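Quick start: read one record
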Amino acid sequence: MVRIVTTEKIPLLLWADALDDEALAQARNLANLPCAFHHVAVMADAHVGYGMPIGGVLAAVDAVVPNGVGVDIGCGMRAVRTGLTEIEPAALKKILAGLRKAVPLGFKHHDKPRPLRVLPDPSSMDRIDQELPVVAEEFASARRQLGTLGGGNHFIELQRGSDNRIWLMVHSGSRNLGYKVAGHYNALAMQLARNQKDAVPKEQQLAMLPAASEEGRRYLREMNYCVAFARANRGEMMAAFQEIVAEVAGCDQFGEPLDVAHNYAARETHFGQEVWVHRKGATRALLGEYGIIPGSQGSCSYIVRGLGNPQSFMSCSHGAGRVLGRKEAQRTLNLREEIDKLNARHVLHSLRNRSDLEEAPGAYKDIGKVIDNQRDLIEVVVELQPLAVLKG
């Protein structure tokens, strides 16, 4: 349930029961932004990010904050329910092997550019050149990155649902395209702030762009392209995933994909005011809207339905949330113990070396507790137990 902090210009509403000091300080900075509206919502999985906590929701009046969206613009989830009710361990291994051949992982890209028809807005190259300067500059590289997983917390997973069906899930984003767009416009916002007497202190990393300015409008256009690119990226991987599952397991039934993003800004109306809602590591949860909340490697994920709670700006968590930073996890977690946890759950996993510990179960919060802390934001529709996971 929500906890309210009233020490700042506007309140903080916290669904996170344990928020580290640095993430809390970042949330306080958000609440004191001149553009911040009504309150700041901090989701149950929140942890420190760059400028703004991951798991934060900021409603801003007439402004956009590039670091309020983050560097992996449009990152999100895609899930598909199959017609399978069981799948053999041998088939799981074959599917993972097929995925390793079909989907470039980590820093790997496709050898050849992907066809223009599978990219967003392929018929408007003139518009891309004229209106999306960073996208245009990165477009040739992006064509080879579409349909690639990336590294970090991105994953491809097979799961057994509480609905007695096998599910397929993909977590990925806009790859280097979103990173370049985010970096360009954050640098531009910082440059513009140098000429403003009331600018946000540089160390807060929360430089803003007026939404109606040419810079702000251009950022929003490029951001929306990255959101569409990330969705297309997940779509390409899921198509390959389904093809492999069909061939290996004989599956001929696949439901409509559920696809949600959790790093973007959108124009919405809340508490009678049109605002730019920044969801950085947060999922939209309108009344009746379906969403996906993944767990960590080896723990449950959830298909959920939003309750449309206005206190969270109709949002919920985007996952389990970290309790250890990547380097801290590599330094402090015991590799053997973390492997044993996954083996005890009978999960085909990607934990092999100390470098992989950044994505070990012990690096993340208890997803069950995270779900319980936001029962006023969502209801669980399907619980998904992991069977096999592939990471970058």
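The chain has one domain: 3-323+364-391.
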